[in-house]
Structures are given as structure tokens and as C-alpha cells.
Amino acid sequence: MHIVTAKEMYEVDSHTVQSAGIDGKILMENAGRAVATNIEKRVANTCRILIFTGSGNNGGDGFVIARTLHLRGYHVEVVSLVDEEKINGDAKFHYDILKKLSVPFHFYKSENQLRGILVHTEAIVDCMLGIGVKGHLKSPYKEVVGQLNKLSIYKVAVDIPTGIPADEGVEVKDGLYANVTFSIQYPKITAFLERYASYYGEWVPLDIGLIPPIKPSFVQTWGRNNVQATLPKRKRFAHKGTFGKGLVIGGSDEMPGSVMMTARAALRSGAGLITIGTTRQNIPAIASYVPEATYKTVDEMDFLSDQYTSVAVGMGLGRTEKAFSLIEQVIRQVKSLLLLDADALYYLKQNLSLLKEREYPTVLTPHAGEMARLLGITTERLLLKPFTYSKAFAKEYNVHLVLKGPFTIITNPQGEQFVITNGNVGLAKGGSGDVLAGILLSFMMQGACLITSLCNGCWIHGASADHLIENGRYSKYDLLATDLMEGIGSVFHTFS
To answer: Is the pTM of this model over 0.90?
Structure first.
């Protein structure tokens, strides 16, 4: 599914009207009817619904919604936050139709007036402002949104909650908290930002027949259907070498668990052969947990001499001079796919130029704090524009970037971006990232397109957590990273 900026959405609207000749009034009718139909699924027709409208196309959608619900037996009233002379364009066309019906219509005058209108209201529909918001709300929108947020009634936002920008990088403080947002055709970027996602509530895209330009360069979500279509198939006569030979380097004497989880997750995810490079002291303990792996000590200077399909480094490796020397050796010498995680990312802060020297694909898997450190900015600043920062970094350093979080953003060196939306807060535990690194390593080894492999791996990781909790085996409190290995197999089983 496409995710768009405000500019991209305007371009889609314009392309649909100009290339296909579909009148804007028809698109507004389609949008309003689609929203009304979905409101019917969530709000009983005995409820009193108040629809708030502004002057633009979002307000025009509201007039269609009001008319449609009224004709379907709902008690609907409309509150316009602008005077009649400010309603124009396609919205004016639908306003004139609505005026011919017996739908109570109010022009906003004051907060006291609104309090009286809100009495006995059980649901509201927000059609006040659309995707053009650039800054803080002004009067009367600020007062109306503040008043509505205090009410414990069902709130529906159309396209985007009033006060919330469509694009990254815009910092606002006032916005309507919706229970559900019906996104017209495509969700907007801010639905996938930690700062603004809670304003949307549940978001539901509604197809109204818009026609995107040929080969649009939009951000896209990656979901179950994408995984099912691209998951590597296992041929009958395949052998362990068919599914790659991987090396996992990590695990200091004090932190052996990380590399254990990464290696085991890789094997659970279909890797053919896994070698663990760690300290000699760690091998006996790790071998009892991952007996399927082979082992090399990182003190053996030739441990990189074998030809590995993919290599992962950094999990629990530590931040000593010896560890940093090893990481540099790996970055310079590995002539295959390379995944850098955890302590390897810490090392990179002062050595980013090494990435530009590599001739083979490189994957970085930072969480927001690690990414902010690489960029030399605060985490708060990163989270205001994660798509923009990720794209710029991936292009500059010619890497594939997996920015981990509630919405994981995957970017390739060409700037293509995908978002993974599954997973849950049960993943907020130490070791979850180590498991993800193992899943990603495994998919990297299995020969598919790299961006596809990374998207599939991230989705499998989130689906594992979701499956374990939805089936009652664990809760969001007690789920551990090691439990995710059980969920991986269950997720694969759903595709068989």
C-alpha cells in the first residue's frame, strides 16, 4: 500500500482529474459515500452524529457524509467553522445540495454555543481541515479541537485528524485524537510517525478511484500479501548449501547471549549453515544452546578466509579496542553481504567513511537512538523526520538501512522505502534486536532481492511476536526475545 506526502496526494488528485477526466465533484462524492458506509459499520443509526466542516475539500467530504447518513436514517447535524461565503469550489456544490435537505446546520459562533450543540452528541466526524496544515492551529479550530478532545465520545477523522500535518518535519502541539481515521485513498506519512500515530487511532484506507502517476515513487507498506508472494520457495532436492553459509560474529565473555540468539534465529528462519565467531571461552556455553552451528574463535586471524554468503557482526561484541579492531577488519575484508548491528554501529560513528569503501552490499540495523548517534542529532529530531533522514543516509553511504521501531522503515541505496507495521510492545525487551538480526541474516543468505529479504525478515519478526500473544501463549509483559524463536516456525506454518 502506498503512503504519501501532501504534495504527492495533490499530484494524484490532479493526475486523476486531468488524465482521466474524472470531475472533482465525483471524487468528493466517492470519498463522502465511502466514509459514510464505514461509519455505518461502527456507529449505530440511533446515535446522534455531529459533523464538523471547514472551507476546503475536507469540508466538502463532510457535506456528502452528512447527506448520505441523513438519507440512511441517521440523526445528523453539521457545524461549519467558516461562514457561508468561504465555502467554495466542489465543496460549495455539495453544500448547496445539503441545504435542500432537513439537516440541522450551524455556523460556529462561540465555545458556549458549541457546548449546547454537543449535548447528547454520541459521535463526531472531523472534516475541519485536510492535509494542508503547516503549523499550530488557529482560532476557532484550536478551541473546537480542545473541546472535542475532552469528550469521551466516538471520534471519526476524515483523511487526517485536524491539526496533524501530513508531512514529516512539522512540529505541532494541537490535534484531534480520533478513534478511527479514514484515509482517502492512501494513508499519509504522519500515520507512521511515533509522535503523531496516536492521533489517528485506527487508520483505514478508502479507495475512491484515484489514479496515481505511472511508476509512483511513494513509500509503501509491506504486509502479509507481500511476504506470501516473495517468500523463498524450498525445492524438493535442495540441500543445506542451497540456503547459504552464514557467519555471526559477536559475544564477548560478558555477553554471550546476543550471538546465541542471532545464530539460533537465523537457523530457525531457514539458514542452511551457520558459523559462530566468538571468544574461545564462550564456545562451550553457546554450543549447548546452538548445537547445529559450527564455531571459530575470533582470535584466529584467518576466520574470515572462508567464503560466506552473508556475515553479521556486532551482537554483544563489546566496545573495547580489540572489538573495534575486529569490526574494522570485518568491514574491510568481508566480500559478501554484511549486516552491522549493535556494537558495530557504535564503532561506525567515527568511521562512517569505511562504508563508502565497501564494494559489497551493507545492511545497518539501528534503533532510533543508534541512528541519531550516527547522524549526530537528538533522537527527538530524528523521530520528527525518520523517512527523510533514513533516505539521505542510505543514499550517501550506499547502504540498506533498517531503522527499527514501532514502524520499522527499510530503505535501500536508491531511496526506495518500505514500512513494517506489525509487531507489538512485547518486542520492547533486550535481545529482540539480536533475534531480528538473525532472521535478516537468514533471509539475506537465501538469494532473494536484498530489499525484499529485509522486508520479509522484519515482517516475520513482528508476526512472530503477534502470533505468540494473539494465541495466548504469552502476554506483552512476559514475552522474551528467546520466545520469538517459537513464533517463527508458527508464522512459517501459516504460509504452508
So the answer is: yes
